[in-house]
């Protein structure tokens, strides 16, 4: 009986218009896709990913003696991740010299996808993300380069596209003399979770 009720609620949720804020019988869903009795429906963010045509990449193995994420209280600290190309290669080079701002923007977006994959692996459900709190973006930049914010926007824009207002965050975008294995960008994040 409980499964049938949840299935009916999920169907009602899927059928509602984007402007509706309540489910059947006026049960409020709020802004994060929650249902009654504390049960969660893994629909809002998954549906948003589908709308955006996003498929999350596999989570890579840690490249050193560390873990992908550490939770303390309601904060999840995500380890820094690097970019990847669709063909599986890793983008390298100095931004502002061998790599353009537009290319590095795409690299930062790819890092954002990896961070989302880590979040999903850790939480099981991206709807458990309450807020992207802080992002630190590091750019492997030529010494005269100054467009670090435009590069890291690749990740920031992705988070806002996926999570809406919950994706808006505090941020630092800085240049580095080098990054591990010559990657173009590395990004880490702090996330408030349920």
What order do the helices and strands follow? HHEEHEHEE
Strand count, sense and barrel status of the largest sheet are: 5 strands, mixed
Our estimate of the beta-strand percent is 15-25%
Taking pLDDT < 50 over at least 5 consecutive residues as the criterion, the unreliable ranges are 1-41
Tell me the overall shape: globular
The largest sheet has its strands arranged as: 1-2-5-3-4
Beta strands, count: 5
Tell me the helix content: 25-40%
Gap from first CA to last CA: 27 Å
Rg value: 19 Å
The assigned structural class equals alpha+beta
Q: How would you portray this structure in words?
A:
With 194 residues, this protein is of the alpha+beta class. Helix content is 31%, strand content 20%. It has helices spanning 2-15, 44-51, 101-123, 148-163; strands at 69-72, 75-81, 129-140, 170-176, 185-193. It has a 5-stranded mixed sheet, covered by helices on one side. Helix 3 runs parallel beside helix 4 (148-163). The longest helix has 23 residues, at 101-123. It is globular, with a radius of gyration of 19 Å. Mean pLDDT is 83; it is low at 1-41.
In a nutshell, what does this entry contain?
By secondary structure, the chain is of the alpha+beta class. Helix content is 31%, strand content 20%. The chain starts with a helix and ends with a strand.
